[in-house]
Design brief:
This protein is an all-alpha fold and 140 residues long. Helices cover 61% and strands 3% of the residues. The chain has 2 domains: 1-80, Multidrug-efflux Transporter Regulator, Chain: A, Domain 2; 82-140. The chain contains 6 helices and 2 strands. The longest helix is centred in the C-terminal third of the chain and has 34 residues, at 83-116.
Length: 140
């Protein structure tokens, strides 16, 4: 049975990924080098599509390209222990939680700045004054 193949444009549309990104992932080795048809077009398989979807999902979860490479390596060894995968995901979760804490601090600071606004003119703007002062004089 002949496996159906996709051009980079078709694969891009199927996965909502820019063609240049697909080529970039191939250049990095995240996607395997693919064969080309007689016209020179890259020919991707369903397995390539699935691998690209895996890459996109892991990137959407905030994993770095190096992390994606490691996770792909883990996924290629189906019978291996998933302890390494668990550790990688736990580490990513902690990084996300840390970013959330940082963003919550930013949110509080912005809310504090908004509470300074008197609705007057810029010359009397407490937000501009607060942003211009040193952090020591204006603790959060």
């Amino acid at each position: 049975m002949i496996e159906k193949s996709f051009t980079v444009g078709h694969l891009a549309r199927q996965t909502n990924t820019k063609a240049v990104t697909i080529r970039y992932y191939e250049q990095l080795g995240l996607l395997p080098s693919v064969s080309r048809n007689s016209s020179g077009y890259r020919q991707y398989t369903a397995a390539d599509r699935d691998r690209l979807l895996f890459i996109r999902r892991t990137r959407a979860l905030g994993f770095s390209l190096d992390d994606v490479r490691q996770l792909l390596g883990f996924s290629d060894h189906r019978q291996a222990s998933c302890a390494s995968v668990d550790a990688k995901v736990a580490n990513q979760l902690e990084q996300v939680r840390s970013r959330i804490r940082d963003l919550q601090g930013l949110e509080q600071e912005l809310e504090r700045l908004m509470s300074c606004c008197g609705g007057g003119v810029i010359d009397e703007c407490r937000i501009i004054e607060s942003l211009s002062s040193s952090p020591e004089r204006n603790p959060t």
